[in-house]
Design a protein that fits this description.
Elements lengths: L7 H11 L2 H6 L9 H19 L3 H6 L3 E3 L2 E3 L4 H10 L18 H14 L1 H8 L1 H11 L2 H13 L3 E5 L15 E4 L5 E11 L9 E8 L10 E7 L10 E6 L10 E14 L5 H37 L1 E2 L9 E2 L4 H33 L3 H35 L3 H4 L5 H8 L9 H13 L5 H14 L5 H22 L5 H28 L6 H15 L1 H19 L2
Parallel strand pairs: 3-6
Antiparallel strand pairs: 1-2, 4-5, 5-9, 6-7, 7-9, 8-9, 10-11
Helix pairs in contact: 1-3, 1-11, 3-6, 6-7, 6-10, 6-11, 8-9, 8-10, 10-11, 10-12, 10-14, 11-12, 11-18, 11-19, 12-14, 12-15, 12-16, 12-18, 15-18, 16-17, 17-18, 17-20, 18-19, 18-20
Bound molecules: flavin-adenine dinucleotide (FAD).
Length: 568
């Protein structure tokens, strides 16, 4: 069974030829000096680290996994050593500010790193995957004292962080969180309660763990408005251990390399992060960063499954394919070619969209023009839920299609493809389930301002294609989405349930329209690639097997809309 091999030349092609990324980040003051050559070196070196250190540990992470005994968690063999190499080499600090020990590089390079890491070893990557969000949350909301003590430790990854939200009765509905935070005379809070499903709540990868915990003060209003965010470390500055205990870790379908912990807080001393009652707002800084990372997990996991399936399809002989003169391979059979090229199209298009979103994150922070910053914020707000939901869905369902390429050999453990399918399933659930992403997109974002921001996003995306022949079908799909959104705005005013019924199909239609846009961007420059067919075959598959679904999704939404309008 082969470990994942990152293909950095593909990623460089998308970054340079398709997105012209260096020109985009060089317009921003902090990155003005970062040229394409430096970006390529980072990509090359990170790909080497992923291939040599992280990918070979994927199997042991699945087979041995994390183990719990007496409150301590031992990670799979090799995991701690790999993590120590990772942070000491500066990888977690790639995009953090130099004043906090970071390297100050564009977020898109960090996005590429995490996509490769997730493809190579999803379980291991769960631990550092939360660092970036914890860093942003503390940077924006932490007090001066907390920032002085924790920010550089988190930025560099010397200490890992957790996100402690979920409780037995509170998952999607975090307003039901019951963990208490009792104010103390010295300004700290005593945190008590039980959090479940906490990724990396306990482990031996780093010497300290910083927990960010959602809890409520006694007497605070019920629901989300009563929630505040608190920081509780595993070890305090004087070396004493906090009253935080890992009670057990979950037995799971996959992702065995990552301990999913039940964490008990017994009057643990903690400090508030941000204003009282604004815990969810502070946490959303962390969750938004994490959502793009989860989308990258989806893209990476699908790429890893595709890579295995593609290699197998070229090795295994099979009866003669239609029109072939000789014995063929699985890859020569149209049914399998269709399947492989389709998943390749989802990976390539997902990368274009996710890398552009990472670029827009930096533009939103640093662009000198306020209108451009606002445009970038709009892009991030609207595309992040789409990327998270659609590409994690595809990682599981498309990964299962890749398993199909192996026939019975995919269902047994030998080739390792079944692990990808098991591991990928959870990404549809955590960081806000895919149903919650769909509601976020349609209700909170697309409909909230009468469709104006969404319509402007599609206009911006269309403008980026120019007036080539490729732009016309993309524009037609965008026009249809804009019309559908206008109709939904009108109908939802008198039917309070309608948007909830159609949100999933609406998100899927948006995802496919954006995928079509990404495919057109690739097609426009594929001729300049060393092997144009590498890029054009997936674009053709997109046209044949994926884009027709757009009409079906719009029809489903339209039908529900018509029945709502008829009964109004
Ligand atoms: C491996 C793993 C790692 C995790 N890591 C963390 C972590 O590090 N930190 C943390 O805090 N949590 C973590 N979680 C928890 C995860 O975020 C929750 O499982 C998730 O938010 C869903 O909550 P729930 O499981 O209670 O399901 P529920 O909220 O009970 O949802 C059940 C189903 O109902 C649907 N649903 C719920 N509400 C609505 C609605 N309003 N409209 C439509 N559909 C709805 C959901 O989409 C879902 O399909 C992790 C979970 C797993 C499995």
């Amino acid at each position: 069974m082969n470990a994942y091999q990152p293909v950095t030349t593909d990623r460089a092609f998308l970054l340079h030829q398709v997105l012209n990324a260096p020109a985009q980040w060089q317009a921003l003051a902090p990155f003005a000096e970062i040229d394409a050559e430096l970006a390529d070196q980072v990509l090359e070196e990170s790909g080497k680290f992923v291939a040599e250190v992280i990918a070979p540990l994927n199997r042991v992470g699945d087979e041995v996994g994390a183990r719990w005994a007496d409150g301590a968690v031992t990670m799979a063999p090799g995991f701690r050593d790999a993590y120590q190499q990772f942070w000491r080499a500066g990888w977690p600090a790639l995009a953090a500010d130099p004043e906090h020990g970071g390297q100050g590089l564009p977020a898109v390079l960090e996005a590429q790193l995490y996509e490769m890491l997730s493809a190579a070893n999803h379980g291991w990557t769960m631990a550092p995957g939360l660092l970036h969000g914890a860093y942003e949350c503390l940077k924006h909301h932490g007090s001066d004292e907390l920032r002085a003590q924790y920010l550089s430790k988190i930025a560099t990854g010397e200490w890992l962080a957790t996100m402690c939200l979920t409780e037995p009765q509170a998952g999607s509905d975090l307003g039901l969180c019951a963990t208490r935070a009792a104010p103390q005379a010295d300004g700290t809070h005593a945190i008590s309660g039980t959090k479940i499903f906490i990724s990396g709540g306990e482990h031996d990868l780093s010497d300290n763990i910083v927990h960010l915990v959602l809890a409520r003060e006694p007497g605070s209003p019920p629901g989300p408005k009563g929630l505040s965010l608190y920081l509780v470390p595993k070890f305090y500055a004087d070396g004493t251990r906090s009253a935080v205990v890992c009670e057990r870790i979950e037995e799971k379908m996959g992702l065995h390399g990552s301990p999913t912990c039940v964490m008990r807080f017994d009057d643990a001393r903690g400090w508030i992060v941000g204003a009282p009652g604004k815990g969810l707002a502070a946490m959303f800084v962390m969750m938004n960063a994490a959502r793009l990372h989860v989308a990258l997990q989806g893209i990476g996991l699908l790429d890893a499954a595709w890579q295995k399936a593609d290699a197998y399809s070229k090795e295994r002989r099979q009866m003669r394919a239609p029109g072939a003169k000789d014995t063929s391979f699985i890859a020569d059979h149209p049914a399998m070619r269709r399947l492989l090229d389709t998943q390749r199209a989802w990976v390539d298009g997902g990368r274009v969209l996710a890398y552009q979103t990472a670029l827009e994150l930096d533009i939103a922070r640093h662009h000198p023009d306020a209108a451009r910053r606002q445009q970038a914020e709009r892009w991030c707000a609207l595309t992040t839920p789409v990327l998270k939901a659609a590409w994690t869905h595809q990682a599981f369902h498309g990964g299962s299609d890749c398993l199909q390429v192996f026939g019975g050999h995919g269902y047994v453990r030998e080739w390792g493809i079944e692990q990808h399918v098991r591991d990928a399933r959870v990404a549809m659930i955590y960081e806000g389930t895919n149903e919650i992403q769909a509601i976020d997109l349609l209700l909170r974002k697309a409909l909230a301002d009468g469709g104006a921001a969404f319509s402007a996003l599609l206009d911006d995306a269309h403008a980026a294609l120019g007036s080539s022949d490729l732009a016309a079908p993309v524009a037609a799909r965008f026009d249809r989405l804009q019309a559908l959104t206008r109709e939904l705005v009108a109908a939802c005013a008198h039917d309070k349930q309608l948007a909830y019924w159609v949100a999933d199909d609406y998100l899927r239609a948006v995802a496919i329209a954006l995928l079509g846009w990404a495919g057109a961007r690739i097609e426009a420059v594929a001729g300049a690639a060393p092997d144009p067919e590498r890029w054009l075959a997936p674009v053709r598959a997109l046209g044949h097997w994926v884009l027709p679904e757009f009409d079906m999704r719009c029809a489903i939404v339209g039908q529900r809309l018509a029945s709502a309008t008829a009964t109004a």
